[in-house]
Amino acid sequence: MLRTTSHPVPFVHTALNDSQSPSNITSEQGGSLEVDPELDALRHIVSQTKGFYARDYSLWLGWNNMRYIIEAAVLHGRILNRTTIIPSYVYARACEFDNSVCAAYATMVNRGDATSTDEWRQLPLEKQMAWRIPVFLMFNLTHLRETHAVITISEYLRLHNISADVETTNGRWDTDLYHRGVNIFSDSGVGPSLYVVKNELYDAGIVRVDQLPQAMRERGGWNITHGQAGSWNITEETLLSKALHDAMTSRASVLDWDTVLIVVGDRHDQNETESSSTSSIANTLEENGWEVLYTYGGACSSEAAKDVAVPIRQAAPRNSLRGLYEDFGFIEQDVLLLEGEVHLGRKPGALKFSTLESRERYTQTVLYDFRLTDNVVELADLLSNRMVEKAGGRMWMGAHMRRGDCLFSCSLNTSMLTTGHSVATLKWTMEPSFEAHLARIKRHLRDGRDILHFVHRGPLHTYKVPLGQADRTPLLLDPPADNDQFYIATDERDLTNLTYLRNQGAVLISDLLTTDDRRTFGWSLMLTDVLSVVEQATLAHAAYFYAHAHSSVAGGVVNLRASRGADPRTSLLET
């Protein structure tokens, strides 16, 4: 194992293809013992870090939320200089054909039984099924490994000569079975040691940040007690600090930047440039025991979307800050486990950043290191081109229409049905009636067409993300015409409703896909979660995109659009 340093160590890539599944530890050839090359590649990945970082993964969630959790886990592993362990598989929630068709290609399980939850017990049995699929079908794990030390749970188990069959089905780390083996490249004969970070110790009563910069430690009087963990000097509260505390809302741990500007901003020269004013305000905060933090606002200020396309600043009392690196970077055990769920109610990365540079690095991780698989990228390019053809060679517009929650709510209460069309009642769906929902989408797409006429004249803008280069498509193609067809990505499966969509000018993915597309892509396209990733990638090409802000699917599309250089004026996520 490598000794940790005061900053994350750059990761050196070791080639290991997603399709490789190391199963043999050694092989006997000509009387000599030969190490399995894939296991040796895994050993090389792990040897560059201090140990392993493990999580309890919420496998009952859909793929987009799982991706956000994995992104955060990879960030934590990088901060702690540990190899991040991710689930070997995830669950696809529905099959586009009869369940038995998908079951011929992927293991079918009862989702509630597999993930230890009763959330779907009231649904018909066939609606409770899910399909276990390798995680590398959902994103390009090979590409991620070029910049981050990441292995799957099954790979960890094989490294320790433990059967992959013991991997838990609910995503929880087994603190017993996962520690019974011995690293096959170690001579110690001892199983991997474990340190557990209790869930309530992660960020309860504090503001969790990535790490505490040296300059911050010095001005706050950080007193080290062991390793790098410690406490802040107790200082007398200033009048400005008290004013900032008074401006915080009940139970808030941070102060939004607009409020900071109100409390602090009027003390500064109004003629200052934005950058000099921000620097001056930061200095004032620091002098009064507060610090600037860097995080994300979310499209339309939605926490559910968890996109990284809208960077923001916040402020917090210095004495509330605790660094992930300071608290856990010097743990010596082989496996560091973060127990329980830290996904809900937190910003992307499940922490805040103490420097602009560290937030920018995480943005790059999400936008560029977590890459779609090649077959998804290639198919989305084809589908986008077909939409251009359907739009007469002009720009095309698209929307995400979330309706699947109706299947659950309506199955519990038949009074929620109206003649001909189902009514959705859960908060995740924008309008109760199907007709009203589509009318709302079309109204915003009409506004989008007007915006595209304006954008078409230039100049183009990009999201405030690293390495952003404007996509010039809005300059090269004409804006949509009034009666052009538009694309709808939806989890709606009612045939009456789908016919209604088409009659109103919508194009669905089933209208674009060909038999050759399905053959080229492979069997996994039959699973709705995989199909949804293809739809997200397709919507990343849309000249204009509209969706509900309370959706992780929409947040994923915004991230893809930001990475492609889309103009932020061409997306609307509405609450």
TrEMBL record:
This is O-fucosyltransferase family protein. It comes from Suillus plorans. The lineage of its organism: Eukaryota, Fungi, Dikarya, Basidiomycota, Agaricomycotina.
